[in-house]
From TrEMBL:
<keyword id="KW-0808">Transferase</keyword>
<keyword id="KW-0489">Methyltransferase</keyword>
<keyword id="KW-0963">Cytoplasm</keyword>
<dbReference type="GO" id="GO:0002181">
    <property type="term" value="P:cytoplasmic translation"/>
</dbReference>
<feature type="binding site">
    <location>
        <position position="53"/>
    </location>
    <ligand>
        <name>S-adenosyl-L-methionine</name>
    </ligand>
</feature>
<dbReference type="GO" id="GO:0005737">
    <property type="term" value="C:cytoplasm"/>
</dbReference>
<dbReference type="InterPro" id="IPR050082">
    <property type="entry name" value="RNA_methyltr_RlmE"/>
</dbReference>
<dbReference type="GO" id="GO:0002128">
    <property type="term" value="P:tRNA nucleoside ribose methylation"/>
</dbReference>
<dbReference type="GO" id="GO:0106340">
    <property type="term" value="F:tRNA (guanosine(34)-2'-O)-methyltransferase activity"/>
</dbReference>
<feature type="binding site">
    <location>
        <position position="126"/>
    </location>
    <ligand>
        <name>S-adenosyl-L-methionine</name>
    </ligand>
</feature>
<protein>
    <recommendedName>
        <fullName>Putative tRNA (cytidine(32)/guanosine(34)-2'-O)-methyltransferase</fullName>
        <ecNumber>2.1.1.205</ecNumber>
    </recommendedName>
</protein>
<feature type="active site" description="Proton acceptor">
    <location>
        <position position="166"/>
    </location>
</feature>
<keyword id="KW-0819">tRNA processing</keyword>
<comment type="function">
    <text>Methylates the 2'-O-ribose of nucleotides at positions 32 and 34 of the tRNA anticodon loop of substrate tRNAs.</text>
</comment>
<dbReference type="InterPro" id="IPR029063">
    <property type="entry name" value="SAM-dependent_MTases_sf"/>
</dbReference>
<dbReference type="InterPro" id="IPR015507">
    <property type="entry name" value="rRNA-MeTfrase_E"/>
</dbReference>
<feature type="domain" description="Ribosomal RNA methyltransferase FtsJ">
    <location>
        <begin position="21"/>
        <end position="208"/>
    </location>
</feature>
């Protein structure tokens, strides 16, 4: 799809470029905030799976820049924002970047070190694997990313803090809900207006971090495994009975963002240009600096070049 055509079919893609966001995902976080007020009182935050960086931009604009521009900025520490991704990201004001895999313990250690013994107020995770189209497989890999995020949460989030994570809705959604409920008394699955209805993504908004009494981080996986297993359910308030049958768990699901706002599944006409010239599509704000498909593009370019050279050769010799 060309840029102008995408501008027409994807209003959030066009708006992101107009407002200086690196990706349309920025609107998802903004719309979650409209509903849940997630930035209130936040001074320290971790952005997991952050590249190309539109959520980090939101964090910078909502937390770091206002603090930096405030008259008493000299007397207070600026908000701490740590962003992590497999891919490198172009710099963002007030955002510390860590390049690494969130499923790797060493990455978690680097993040924790940046907090220097302090705890975070908010952890966000927009992680997504490269989707295969095999629904169950994609949902499984996605849930592993969330659990890696949850591992970091148990080390770094302060009691009462919030965790926002992208989920893929599928047949194991109830299990994931119950696992999150172990640590957060309030869990809502939210669908921002900027997330297409045709997409299975939604966001778990987990509030008021309250790990079980006597919880130790090394028990995390044992506890998660007990959820939904008939043997381990008795001492948990979200056992196997919650996952099936007439008692099946009820998951709070909420659409968020201004319901009269732009509809991500609709095409909108391109804006009229005042001086009568044709509409010019804007370039993306910050293309990825080292995307995983970079090598593929280089190989494709080299292959096209070789074909052209061969064609020139055969023309010369005819
Ligand atoms: C949808 S994008 C995130 C978009 C970002 N929130 C933004 O607003 O620009 C998903 C990201 O997850 C990252 N990711 C996937 N698996 C990861 C992993 N195991 N560790 C770190 N990052 C990962 C990908 O590299 C990709 O940049």
């Amino acid at each position: 799809m060309g840029k102008a055509s995408r501008d027409k079919r994807d209003i959030y893609y066009r708006k992101a470029k107009e407002e200086g966001w690196r990706a349309r995902s920025a609107f998802k976080l903004l719309q979650i905030d409209e509903e849940f007020n997630i930035f209130e009182g936040v001074k320290r935050v971790v952005d997991l799976c952050a590249a190309p960086g539109s959520w980090s931009q939101v964090l910078s604009r909502k937390l770091y820049l206002p603090a930096k521009l405030s008259p008493d900025s000299r007397d207070t520490d600026p908000p701490l924002i740590v962003a992590v991704d497999l891919q490198p990201m172009a710099p963002i004001d007030g955002v510390i970047q860590v390049q690494g895999d969130i499923t790797n313990a060493r990455t978690a250690e680097v993040v924790i070190r940046h907090f220097d013994g302090c705890k975070a107020d908010l952890v966000v995770c927009d992680g997504a694997p490269d989707v295969t189209g095999l629904h169950d497989m994609d949902e499984f890999v996605q849930s592993q990313l969330i659990l890696a995020g949850l591992t970091i949460v148990t080390h770094i989030l302060r009691k009462g803090g919030k965790f926002i994570a992208k989920i893929f809705r599928g047949k194991d959604t109830s299990l994931l809900y119950c696992q999150l409920k172990l640590f957060f008394p309030k869990v809502t699955f939210a669908k921002p207006k900027s997330s297409r209805n045709s997409s299975i993504e939604a966001f778990a908004v987990c509030e008021d971090y309250s790990p079980p009494e006597g919880f130790s981080e090394k028990d995390l996986y044992r506890l998660l495994k007990e959820i939904g297993s008939p043997s381990g359910a008795d001492n948990l308030d979200c056992g196997s009975a919650w996952l099936e049958g007439p008692n099946k768990v009820y998951i709070p699901f909420l659409a968020c963002g201004d319901l009269c706002g732009y509809d991500s599944d609709r095409s909108y006409p391109l804006p009229q240009v005042a001086d009568g010239t044709t509409y010019k599509s804007l370039d993306p704000i910050q293309p990825p600096i080292a995307p995983p498909y970079k090598r593929a593009l280089e190989l494709k370019k080299a292959a096209n070049q070789s074909v052209r050279e061969l064609e020139d050769l055969s023309l010369d010799s005819s």
